[in-house]
Amino acid sequence: MARDRIPTRRRAGALAAALAALTLAGTLTAAHAPLAAEPHSRGSRPRGHDVSSHQKRVDWWSARAEGARFVYVKATESTTYRNPYFTGQYNGARRAGLVRGAYHFALPNRSSGAAQAAYFVRHGGGWRADGVTLPPALDIEYNPYDKHHKCYGLSRKRMVRWIRSFSDEVRRDTGRRPVIYTTAHWWAACTGDSRAFSGDHALWIASHGSSGPGRLPGGWRYWTFWQHGTKGRLPGDQDLFDGSATRLRAFARGR
After folding, report:
1. Quick one: pLDDT band at residue 211, thresholds 50, 70, 90?
2. Catalytic center residues
3. Is residue 215 within 8 Å of 193, Cβ to Cβ?
4. Could you tell me the residue ranges of all domains in the chain?
5. Could you tell me whether strands 99-105 and 68-77 are parallel, antiparallel, or unpaired per DSSP bridges?
6. What is the CATH code for 42-253?
7. Number of H helices, E strands in the chain
8. Alpha helix (H) residue ranges in 52-145
9. pTM
10. Smallest Cα–Cα separation from 141: which of 185, 174, 111?
C-alpha cells in the first residue's frame, strides 16, 4: 500500500534487514489479536491482499478462487486524494464474499491527524459490526515524496500525537480504533518505538519475506495482519491474518 499518483509499492521489503531486536511488552484485547489458544501455521491462516488504484479493476471472483478471504482497499490519502476505483473495488470484494476494509495513507506533514481521519471516514473509511467489514486502517510509513524527511519533519513526540489524533477521530466517527500498518524500522525511527498504541490497536506489520514478520514494534505482542510480499497469486500486496476464518469474522465484528 502507498501513494497512487506516483508509481509506488511498499518499501518494507528493503527494510527487512533493518528489523532490529525490539523489546516486547503490552497486551491486546481479543478484538485486536488472535486467540492465544488458537495456533496456526502460515499455510492455514486466511490469505488476503491489499489494493489501491494501481490495481484498477480487480477480478474479485478470480482472487477468491486463488484463496483470498479478505482485502484492504485504499480509500484516501491526506485530505486531497480519493482512490477513483475505491467504490468498485470495495463493493466488488464484498460481492465475491471477501471480508473487506478500507485504509488511509497518512501524510502527517499535510494536515492534522483528526482532519485526515475525518476525510477518510467520509470517503469510505467507515465500519459496522456486520462480520464482513474490517476496522479502518491507518497506513503510516516512510514519506514516499521526500526521502530526506522520512518522518515528515515531525519529532517523535509530535508523530505520536498525530497518530493519537487520527485514532481518536476514527473512534469517535466509527466506534473502532484503527488498525495500524507500519514497519518496525519506521516505528522505531519516527515514534521512538512508542508503546502508546499496543494496548488497544491491532497491528498490521509489513515485513517482506518467508521467515516470519520478525520482532514487533512498540510493545505489540501479537500481529493481526502480516504483509509478507508485494507480489504473489493475489492482486496487490500479499497478506495473512493470524487466526482462523472464524476469528477473522469475529475480529471484523469487534469481538
Report:
1. confident
2. 50, 139, 141
3. no
4. 42-253
5. parallel
6. 3.20.20.80
7. 7, 9
8. 60-65, 86-95, 113-122
9. 0.86
10. 185
